[in-house]
Design goal:
Distance between the termini: 42 Å
Number of strands: 9
CATH architecture: 2-Layer Sandwich
CATH topology: Ribosomal Protein S5, domain 2
CATH superfamily: GHMP Kinase, N-terminal domain
CATH class: Alpha Beta
Structural class: alpha+beta
Number of domains: 1
Low-confidence stretches: none
Oligomer: single chain
Strand order of the largest sheet: 1-2-3-5-4
């Protein structure tokens, strides 16, 4: 695709410059900060905690997520985001490796979400925090926000806030290594043609971001 009139001049299938930093919160068992452009999200994880309670599940880990954009009581939207992050992690964590244990995850966006769909930044920071903690994973997975521009059905990966109002559809995809789509959160219907193109764009983006994250992880290990 050619360059279109996106606010920052990016091509439709191009995401903003990524940033990945591990071990941002030293007191946690694992932590990571993930961002695209000037939007970042920080996540930290505690566990697996082998402390039996009546709520624990016998054959798998119980995942608790706390999502807060500020220190006040959680809003209904933040509760919804907590459920989406939990669903995402249950797809990628090897949950049966930690029976009767609890994983507690705290996610803090530097820029509050406006929509009902949780941001890909939150999902990626949560996944990377688990990776930093050495949690057993079934697969590596990176999430991407994708918008479909209403006027011409152009697929925009990583839309900025100025573009959200122009999108007739908005979804978040979790793409595992190898191209498998392991998570989808969307709020509108897509035709088969557009869906196939969305997958193609997201799989290509996953390969780029996975390579970038590997370099960031190596840099972190080198500085220890």
């Amino acid at each position: 695709m050619n360059i279109t009139n996106r606010p920052d001049g990016r091509e439709p299938g191009q995401f903003r410059i990524p940033s990945v930093q591990f071990r941002t919160i030293t007191k946690a068992h694992g932590s990571a900060e993930f961002g695209l452009g000037d939007e970042q999200c920080i996540a930290c994880i505690y566990g697996p905690i082998n402390k039996l309670t009546r709520r624990d599940i016998n054959d798998r880990v119980r995942i608790e997520v706390l999502y807060r954009s500020c220190c006040t009581k959680a809003t209904p939207k933040e509760r919804n985001h907590e459920m989406q992050i939990k669903r995402y992690l249950e797809k990628v964590i090897d949950v049966k490796q930690y029976p009767r244990c609890t994983l507690r995850l705290v996610v803090h966006p530097t820029v509050p979400d406006n929509g009902e769909v949780v941001s890909s930044h939150a999902l990626n920071s949560a996944f990377l925090a688990c990776l930093d903690a050495g949690v057993a994973m079934k697969t590596s997975c990176f999430a991407f926000t994708v918008g479909i521009r209403a006027e011409d059905d152009v697929i925009l990966i990583d839309p900025v806030r100025e573009e959200l109002g122009e999108c007739s559809s908005l979804l978040v995809l979790g793409v595992a290594k190898g191209g498998e789509i392991c998570y989808v959160s969307q709020i509108s219907y897509l035709t088969e043609t557009i869906w196939n193109e969305v997958i193609r764009v997201a799989v290509k983006a996953e390969q780029v971001l996975e390579a970038f994250t590997r370099l960031s992880a190596k840099a972190t290990c080198a500085n220890i």
